[in-house]
Amino acid sequence: MSFRNPFVRISVDTERLIDEMHGFVTDPSPSRNSRDIVRVLDDLHPESVEVLEAMLLDGTESREDIAAYVAAIFPTTAD
Question: What is the pTM of this model?
């Protein structure tokens, strides 16, 4: 997935992002807060950490639910 304007192009590896976010919500240990994904999301999109924590509390374990969230916050654009 990528975003473009005439000056900046940002590319997101959505599959890896989904995998890492899924790993966070399915990790039962408190050490999940030390995962790299938490630090990266804090820098890139801090609201997502709160959403992941809510998913964790709600018992969300479906990769498809996380993929739908990622698609909503990083929509695809035509190249």
Answer: 0.83
